[in-house]
Amino acid sequence: MRRGIIIVGTLFFVSCDKPSETTSTVPVMASEHVVPEWKKHGRLTYEIIQEWPHDQSAFTQGLLFSQGQWLEGTGGHGSTRLRRVEKATGRVLQEKELLDAYFGEGITELDGKIYQLTWKNQVGFVYDAKTLAWQKNFSYQGEGWGLTTDGQCLIMSNGTEKLRFLDAKTFRVLREVTVTDAGRAVPDLNELEWVEGEIFANVWMTCWGALICGIYPSDNKPPTQIMCSMALPMMRQSRSCLSRANAGRSSIRSV
């Protein structure tokens, strides 16, 4: 099969603030919540630390790392899969194929189950996380794009500036968060990931998904921004030969 790459990086912050000339001597109590340094900065950059082989023909919609292997949800009518992939080789170990009518979208894992969205069918699927055996369907209104979890709820995007928090058992909408930056809506929120109390979302079609926003779901703080456009030349031989028609398959699809 054709080979792509899965890129894993580490984030670090960029700041123009003047360094402090004094060091605080106030002790931090063990019960206090210490905010990680990266969360204090509005713009982050990244460093690529590892690459792994990946099936380039897979239209990746959701990707997560579980028990030493990749869990991947792919999209496209006739090419939607849920698969378990060996990290070191990119070899598909398990695979569940969906009917041609479904266009697969984001996936997440919670309490021994894998949840998978579809784009316009307004239906999602629940699988056993070990066997990938189908368990049941669930429904939702509107389109399905990205999916993640905070360990209790399912969090989904629908291509707008809104994120929905769903009950993982009843799939009832518990609350909705509107993402804004300087008072303006941030639409096209796509694939999602929960990181230390913050939701990371790549923004669809911003330099082919190269803008990633860190969203604070419980307050009005502006999103953290991470530009990953420098990673894109590694994903294709030439940006100039990329047409808009195939831009989606060559973009940053997962966080």
Q: Features of this protein?
A:
255 residues; Lipocalin; 1 helix; 2% helix; globular
Describe, in short, the structure shown.
With 255 residues, the chain is mainly β. It has a single domain, classed as Lipocalin.
Question: How would you sum up this structure, described in words?
Answer:
The chain is mainly beta and 255 residues long. It has a single domain (3-14, 38-250), classed as Lipocalin, CATH 2.40.128. Helix content is 2%, strand content 47%. It contains one helix and 20 strands. It has one helix spanning 232-235, and strands at residues 3-13, 43-55, 60-66, 69-74, 81-86, 92-97, 104-110, 113-118, 123-128, 134-139, 147-149, 153-157, 162-167, 173-178, 180-181, 184-185, 189-195, 198-203, 211-215, 224-227. The strands form five sheets. A six-stranded mixed sheet has the order 1-2-20-19-18-17, with no helix packed on it. A four-stranded antiparallel sheet has the order 3-4-5-6, with no helix packed on it. Strand 3 and strand 4 form a beta hairpin. The radius of gyration is 19 Å and the shape is globular. Mean pLDDT is 77; it is low at 10-33 and 228-252.
